[in-house]
Amino acid sequence: MSDMSPAVLLTNTGVPMKAQLRRIERVSQLKSLALILPLLLFLIVTFMLPIAAMLRQSVSNPEVVRVMPATLQALKHWNGKTMPDEATSRALLSDLTRAGGDGYALAAAGKRLNMEIAGYRSLVMKTVRHLPEERAAPSARAALLTVDDRWGDPAYWHAIARNASPTTPFYLLASLDHNVNDQGEVVHSEPDRAIYLDVFARTFGMSLVVTLVCVLLGFPVAYLLATLPTRKSNLLMILVLLPFWTSVLVRVAAWIVLLQSGGLINSALIGLGLTREPLELVFNRTGVYISMVHILLPFMILPIYSVMRGISPSYMRAAISLGSHPILSFWRVYFPQTVAGLAAGGLLVFILSIGYYITPALLGGPKDQMVSYFVAFYTNTTVNWGMATSLGTLLLLATLILYAVYNRLIGANRLQLG
Amino acid sequence: MQSFVTLPERIWYYTFRVICALVLLFLVLPILVIVPLSFNSSEFLLYPLTGFSLRWYQDFFHSPEWMNSLKNSAIVAPSATVVATLLGTMAAVGLTRARFRGKALLMGVLISPMVVPVVILGVASYLFFAPLGLTSGYGLLIMTHAALGVPFVIITVSATLQGFNTNLLRAASSLGSTPLHAFFRITLPLIAPGVVSGALFAFGTSFDEVVVTLFLAGPEQTTLPRQMFSGIRENISPTIAAVATILIAISVCMLLALEFLRGRAEKLRSSLPGA
User: What angle do CA B173, B179, B182 make, to 5 degrees?
Assistant: First the structure.
C-alpha cells in the first residue's frame, strides 16, 4: 500500500516541501508585521494615548472628592430635603480646615462647585475665611448659617453630594445642554447655559452648506477635466492643485484682502453698479463660507475627477445613438456612475469641515464659530478641561462615525491625493 | 464644434465652459491678488497699486520674530518629514505584503490622524504631555507633526506599491541578493516617486500646520504659520503679503516637483515588462 501513496516532495534538507513553504510564508508575514510595528507604536504614543487621556479627562471629577471626603461620607445618610444634620456640618468644617493648607485643591473644588451653582466658589472661600470663629462655636450647623444662610438651602448640599464620585457625566451632559438636578434626574439645562446643541447644529449646518456648494462647484469642473484631452486637462489641473498646495493661512489672508470693504470684490461690485454701499463680506458667515469652500473644493474635485476618468464615453454615446435625449442620457447613464466619486468627495469634505478652526476663527464673527473653537477656547482662555475635553470627545465621536462610514463605503486606502 | 450641433446645445456648451472658468478663477484668484500687493509701496493692502517696492520683503528679513519663526519652521518641518517618511514607508511596505484579518481596520487607524480634527489632537497632546514636562522644545512638536504627515506617506507609497511586480524581488533573491539589498536596489528605486511625493505631502502638512502648534509651541518655537496666524489676527500688514508670496513660491516648487515625479512614475511603470 505504501508504494501507492503519492510521493511527498522533500527539500534537499529532508523537510517536506509543503511545511518548508509554510514556514517561509510565516516568516515573511512576521517580517511584514515587524515593518508596521514601529509606526503603530509611534502613533500609540503621539496620537492614541493623548486622545485616550482626553476621553478620560472628559469624565474626570477629582476636585470635590479630594477636598471633602468626610462631608461626602456623612451626606450618604442625608434625607436630601432639609439642611443636613450637625455631624455633616461638622464634617464639612473639618474638611475645610484640612483643605485650608492646600489653597490649590480648595480653589479647584470651589471652581468645580461653582459650575453647579453660580456663586459657590465665593461661598466656600467666605466659609474658609471665617473658620476660626466657626470651630469655636458649639454648633457647627449654626456656625455655618451665621456665616452665610445659603448653607441652609439643600441645593448647596446636593451640589456636593452630586460630586461623590471621581467620575462624572456632568461635562458630557453639559456639552449636550443637559444636567442632573437635585432629584437625580437628567433635565434640560437653563437657557443661559444651553448653548452647545446650537453650536453642534451650527457646525453640522455650516459643514453641510460647504459640502453642497463644493458639490455644485466641483462637479462641473471635474467633468470638464475628465473630458478634456489629457494635455489640456493637466494644465487646468494645475489651477486646482496650486491652491491645494498653498498654505491655508496665505489663502485666509488673501480672502481678507479681497473681501474687505475697500477690497477688489467690493470695488468690482460697486463698479458694476450691483451695489452702492460696500457689502460686508468678511468677519461674518459669508467670509467663512467663501474661504472654507475655497480650501475644501480640491478635496471634492479630485475624487470625482478620478472616478470620471474611469467612465467610458461609449455608454453615453450608445444612449444618445439609441435616441435618448443628451440631458436624459447624462442623468440616467453618466451621472449614476459618478456617485462613488461624489460620495467620497462629499464625505471627505464634510468630515474635514466639522473640525474646522482656523478659518472661522480668522474670518468669522462670534456667531460663526464651530465646535473646535469652543474646545480651544476652554483650553486656552478659561482653562476648563472638563468642557474642553467633553466637547472634544463628542466632536471626535461624530468624526469617527463619519470616518467609519467613509471606510465602509470607499475604503481608507482609496483616498486620492492629487 | 460640428455644424449639426443645435443652438441650445451650443449655448449650453459655452455656459458650461464659463461656469468652469469662473470656478477655476475662484480657485486661483486669492493667489493672483496677494502676490502683486507684496511688491506694492503702499502701507495698505488695497488696489490700485501705487508703486514697486521691496520694503515688505526687507521688513520680513529684518524682523527678528519672522526670522525666528522661519528658523523654527526650517527645523520642525524637515525633521517631521524624515520621521513620517521613514515610518510611513516601512509600514506601507509591510501593509502591502501582510495578509491578516483586520488589515483594513489597521489601515483605517493608521490613516486616522488625517481626519481627526487637529484641535482635538492639539488639546489631547497638551493635556497628556504638559504634566510630563515635554511641551517645551521641538521634540513633541516634531513628533506630532510627523503623526499628522504619516497618512499621506502611507497613501502615496501604497499606491505606487500596487503596481509593483513582486517577481522582480523573487528574481533578485534567486540571483543571491539578500532581502535588504533587494529592497534598496530594486524596491526603493521603483517606489521612489511615491516615497518622495509622500515626503512632500508630509512636509507640506507640517510647514502649513498652525493649530497643533498653537497648543504645543512656546514663544521660542513659534513657526512661520503660527506667526502668520497672530499677524492676521492682530493687523494684516503688507509684510504678511510678502511672507504669503514666499510661501506661494515654495508651493509652486513643491507642485512642480510632484508633477515631475508623477511623470517619472508613469514612464517607469510603462517601461517595465510585465508591470
Answer: 75
Residue B10 falls inside a structural domain: no
Q: How many domains does chain B have?
A: 1
Set of chain A residues whose Cβ sits within 8 Å of the Cβ of B98: 29, 32-33, 36
Per-residue confidence (pLDDT) for residue A99, from 0 to 100: 84
Counting DSSP H helices and E strands in chain A, the numbers are: 22, 2
All structural domains of chain A: 1-57 (no CATH), 63-168 (no CATH), 196-414 (1.10.3720.10)
**Other Cβ atoms closer than 10 A to A417:** 17
A99 touches A67 (CB < 8 A): yes
Q: Which of A353, A215, A238, A379 is nearest to A297 (CA)?
A: A215
What would the pLDDT profile of A138-185 be if each residue is shown by its tens digit?
888 888 888 888 998 999 999 999 999 999 999 999 999 998 888 888
Q: Are A269 and A275 in contact, with CB atoms under 8 Å apart?
A: yes
**pTM for the predicted model, two decimal places:** 0.90
The verdict on A365 touching B (C-beta cutoff 8 Å) is: no
Residue B27 lies in a domain: no
Q: Tell me how far the alpha carbon of residue B72 is from its chain's centroid.
A: 17
CB–CB of B121 and A50 under 8 A? yes
B30 interaction partners in chain A (CB closer than 8 Å): 243, 250-251, 254-255, 258, 294
Could you give the CA distance from residue A275 to residue A261 in angstroms, rounded to a whole number? Answer: 12
Verify cis geometry, omega within 30 degrees of 0, for the bond prior to B219: no
Chain center to CA of A205: 15
CB proximity A215 to B under 8 Å: no
Do B160 and B194 contact (CB within 8 A), yes or no? yes
How far apart CA B225 and CA A253 sit, in angstroms, is 11
Using the Cβ of A243 and the Cβ atoms of chain B, whether some distance falls under 8 Å is answered with yes
**How far does A54 lie from chain B, in Å, by closest CA?**
5
What was the ipTM of the complex prediction? Answer: 0.90
CA of A9 vs chain B CAs: smallest distance (Å)? 20
Contact A333, A381 (CB under 8 A): no
Alpha-carbon distance values, B73 to A312, A357, B70, B206 (Å)? 46, 21, 5, 8
For B127-180, what is each residue's pLDDT tens digit? 999 989 888 789 999 999 999 999 999 999 998 888 788 888 889 989 988 888
Per-residue pLDDT band at B2 (split at 50, 70, 90): low
Domain containing residue B104? 58-271
Q: What is the pLDDT of residues A381-393, one digit of tens each?
A: 888 999 999 999 9
Residue from A291, A375, A363, A341 nearest B116 by CA: A375
Q: What is the structure's pLDDT at A418?
A: 43
* pLDDT range class, residue B274, cuts 50, 70, 90: very low
In the predicted structure, residue A240 carries a pLDDT above the cut 60:
yes
Residue B264 lies in a domain: yes
Distance CA A43, CA A36 (A): 11
Q: What are the helix and strand counts (H, E) for chain B? A: 12, 0
Partner-chain contact B110 A39, CB within 8 Å: yes
Which CATH number does the domain housing residue B88 bear?
1.10.3720.10
Whether B100 is in a domain gets the answer: yes
